[in-house]
Every structure is written in C-alpha cells, then in structure tokens.
C-alpha cells in the first residue's frame, strides 16, 4: 500500500513542466482527477460500511472466533475512517479551487526542491504529502482485506469444528478458491492498468 506509481509519475509531470500555462493545465487535470477519485472512494467506503454492518446481522457472530470479529470490527472502523478522510480531503481541495492561483499552491504542497546528481535544484514529488493524499484509498483497500480475512477465519473455524466431510468444510474450500481467483484477477487488472498508464506517460 505504498505510493502508487501513477500518482508519482503524474505529479512529477506537472512539477517539472517548464511552460507555466501547460503546468497550470496539468495541475488542474490532476486536481479534477483527484477529486473524482475521492468521490469514488467515498461511495465505495459507504457500501463497504453497509456490508460490514450487514455481516453482523446475517452471520452467526456468536459462534465465530474472536479473530474474525476483530477483523470485521477493525475493518469497519477503517472503512469509516476512509470515508471521513475522503470527505475531508474533497472539501479541502474544492475549497482550494476557489482561490486564484491555486495551481501554484498545489505545486508547493505536493513538491519540494531537491538536488540531482549534477548538483542542480529540481522539483520532486514530496512523498510524505503524496502519502497523505492516498490515505483514503489505502484505508479502503485495507478494510477490504480485513473483511475477506475475517470471513475466511469464520468459515475455516466452522470447518475445523464440524470436520473434514461437513458442509462447512466444503464451503471453506469453495471460499478459498474464490478468494484466490478474485485475488489473481485483481492483481492482473492492477498490473495491466499501471503498465498502460506508464506507457502513456512515457509517450
């Protein structure tokens, strides 16, 4: 859950742009994209919060191991934190847009002066600031993982208690296969999109 490559390359693009007018355009495009991203995170976090809350009602939580409940409870809190952080950042960025010359303010916030190998001063992304801007997305991903881990702990605990030939054991195997399938496809999708984005930036 480190800084996403596309964030680094996009920010570096407008930080190092020499033409002021083009830098302004690139900064505005990045800002609009970031606000849209936060909107998606807010909606997804709200849906995930509803999923966590529903889990406590339809699943027999009293028979679940404490580790599963700990994952679900922690995931719920993190999802709420993701929603709140995304909303706060959206409000702040929209408020920033109302000021003249906000493009320069954004460049100052996400970038810093650094010295390259030739001894020249260049603008580079400030990774601590980029990390802050990615907190909603990272918390959302973590809450997804905690939900799946908690569900896995619950179904496998039931499988162990009921025995190898029980229906619970078959459910646990089916769940594991499904999670592996989803994880592989998620990884393929993410890698493809990141590589595609890198090629577009390089062009």
From TrEMBL:
<keyword id="KW-0812">Transmembrane</keyword>
<keyword id="KW-0472">Membrane</keyword>
<feature type="transmembrane region" description="Helical">
    <location>
        <begin position="173"/>
        <end position="194"/>
    </location>
</feature>
<feature type="transmembrane region" description="Helical">
    <location>
        <begin position="130"/>
        <end position="153"/>
    </location>
</feature>
<feature type="transmembrane region" description="Helical">
    <location>
        <begin position="38"/>
        <end position="59"/>
    </location>
</feature>
<protein>
    <submittedName>
        <fullName>Uncharacterized protein</fullName>
    </submittedName>
</protein>
<feature type="transmembrane region" description="Helical">
    <location>
        <begin position="65"/>
        <end position="87"/>
    </location>
</feature>
<keyword id="KW-1133">Transmembrane helix</keyword>
């Amino acid at each position: 859950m480190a800084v996403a490559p596309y964030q680094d390359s996009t920010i570096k693009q407008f930080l190092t742009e020499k033409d002021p007018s083009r830098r302004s355009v690139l900064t505005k495009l990045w800002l609009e994209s970031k606000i849209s991203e936060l909107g998606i995170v807010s909606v997804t976090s709200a849906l995930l919060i509803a999923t966590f809350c529903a889990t406590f009602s339809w699943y027999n939580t009293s028979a679940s191991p404490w580790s599963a409940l700990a994952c679900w409870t922690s995931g719920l809190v993190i999802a709420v934190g993701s929603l709140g952080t995304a909303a706060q950042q959206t409000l702040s960025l929209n408020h920033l847009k109302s000021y003249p010359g906000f493009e320069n303010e954004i460049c100052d916030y996400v970038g810093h002066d650094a010295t390259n190998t030739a001894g020249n001063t260049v603008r580079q992304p400030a990774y601590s600031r980029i990390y802050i801007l990615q907190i909603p997305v990272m918390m959302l991903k973590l809450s997804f993982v905690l939900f799946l881990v908690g569900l896995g702990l619950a179904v496998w605990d039931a499988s162990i208690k009921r025995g190898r030939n029980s229906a619970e054991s078959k459910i646990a195997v089916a769940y594991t296969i499904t999670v592996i399938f989803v994880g592989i496809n998620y990884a393929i999708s993410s890698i493809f999109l990141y590589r595609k984005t890198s090629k577009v930036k390089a062009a």
